[in-house]
Design a protein that fits this description.
It contains 13 helices and 15 strands. It is α+β, with helices and mostly antiparallel strands. Among the domains are: 178 residues, no CATH class; 98 residues, Methane Monooxygenase Hydroxylase, Chain G, domain 1, CATH 1.20.58. The protein has a five-stranded antiparallel beta sheet with strand order 2-1-15-14-13, with helices on both faces. The protein has a three-stranded antiparallel beta sheet with strand order 3-7-4. A hairpin with a 4-residue loop joins β11 and β12. α3 packs parallel to α7, α3 packs across α8 and α6 packs across α7. It starts with 7 loop residues before the first helix and ends in a 7-residue tail after the last helix. The relative contact order is 0.20. The N terminus is likely disordered.
């Protein structure tokens, strides 16, 4: 890995020098063999250590894909088929930034919703329940003061809304950062209440269709289950094409916090759109100012946590940032073993999708994400090659 072996000062100086050099781009992925070897080493070790059964790593910039490769198998079951670059993954919480947040922001663009709307405007159930100061923006930044709560299976949405109505806010909205799925469960329902259409239809028509993200959807169904990588249910049994998240499952697979299934290639088109400030291949999906607004930092915890509208910038969940990515970069992770990280300042992004096996060793999984991003950044800036090769020579062997 690049980061720990190099002082931050030296790395920064090298980055500043080489950011003026062109990165690889075009229709044919190109990457120097040292980087291919480094990614392979990291993935092989993760599989040998039992963190993952397999996965896909993709690196790109606004022009296209620089590197994409598949590793391992779609599950830990003996005889499982190999992962390919077309394998579909349960993206888990990436749903928050590739579905719910853009759906909400398109409604803001259209003037149908405001970030400073009191939540009681759209959820009258909250009136007189101590939620008068709660705004839409607080849900997007996880600064609502709400905590996750159990959802009843009988009527899960009603259970969630009523649970929030009864819950006492923890602190003043806007001050306390607490990552909680309930924020985006409410946002998914907000989209439905504003548009009259469910989130899956809204985002398919407004985002995935224009971006030609033909595989990305909620509830892929049994017809494509054979193309899906597995997640694990509570008993450790593989799930193919069925959402892993329990709350999303109760909500029939369509929820604001989880439920999207996608491929690395589809996510690359989304990342390129973000780097293009809302436009890809001549089609505008979001206004440029909307993208800038989504990725501008909102500060909490005395400035130690920075979040965008849905996006993570600097928080305890920022392991995919790696080394090299600028302070303007942002991304998100997913419990199933997914992550994306995007850097508009250096025109780069890295996508990691995996068939995760180990959900307890979060430190090792965070390190894997961090190391992959460090290598990905160096891949885009080959001037770092000599320094990084020296650093990566000390990578631990695959067991």
């Amino acid at each position: 890995m690049v980061a720990p072996m190099l002082s931050r000062k030296v790395l920064t100086l090298v980055i500043l020098f080489f950011t003026s050099l062109p990165a690889f781009a075009g229709d044919t992925p190109i990457a120097p063999s040292p980087w291919q070897s480094a990614v392979s080493h990291l993935m092989d070790k993760a599989m040998a250590d039992g963190l993952i059964a397999g996965g896909v790593v993709l690196v790109g910039n606004r022009h296209g894909v620089v590197y994409e490769s598949a590793f391992g198998r779609v599950s830990g079951v003996p005889g499982a088929v190999p992962v390919t670059t077309d394998t579909i993954f349960d993206a888990a919480s990436l749903t928050k930034v590739v579905a719910t947040a853009p759906a909400v922001m398109k409604l803001v663009e259209q003037g149908r919703l405001s970030l400073v709307d009191p939540l009681i405007r759209w959820f009258p159930e909250f009136a007189g329940r101590g939620k008068d100061e709660l705004r839409v923006v607080h849900l997007l930044t996880h600064t609502s003061g709400l905590d996750d709560l159990p959802i009843a299976p009988g009527n899960p949405l009603l259970s969630a809304v009523e649970g929030v109505a009864l819950q006492k806010l923890k602190g003043e909205p806007g001050n306390r950062f607490r990552y909680a799925d309930i924020n985006f469960i409410l946002l998914g329902e907000l989209v439905r209440r504003v548009t009259g259409a469910p989130l899956d239809l809204t985002v398919a028509e407004g985002v995935y269709g224009p971006l030609s993200m033909g595989t990305t959807c909620f509830n892929p169904g049994p017809a494509v289950a054979g193309r899906c990588a597995a997640t694990l249910d509570a008993g450790g049994n593989p799930l193919f094409g069925r959402v892993q998240d329990h709350s999303a499952h109760l909500l029939d697979g369509v929820a604001g916090h989880a439920g999207i299934f996608t491929t690395a290639g589809d996510l690359a088109r989304f990342c390129r759109m973000i780097l293009g400030e809302g436009e890809l291949d001549g089609r505008r999906v979001l206004e440029a100012r909307t993208v800038r607004q989504m990725t501008a930092p909102y500060f909490s915890r005395g400035g130690t946590v920075r979040r965008g509208l849905g996006w993570d910038i600097a928080s305890p969940f920022s392991s995919p940032k790696g080394s090299g990515f600028s302070e303007a970069s942002f991304g998100h992770t997913g419990y199933s073993g997914s992550s994306i990280w995007i850097d508009p300042e250096n025109d780069s992004f890295v996508i990691f999708l995996s068939a995760r096996l180990d959900y307890r060793n979060t430190r090792a999984f965070s390190k894997l994400r961090n190391d992959l991003s460090s290598v990905a950044f160096a891949m885009l800036y080959p001037g770092l090659r000599e320094l990084a090769e020296i650093a990566m020579s000390d990578l631990p062997p695959v067991r």
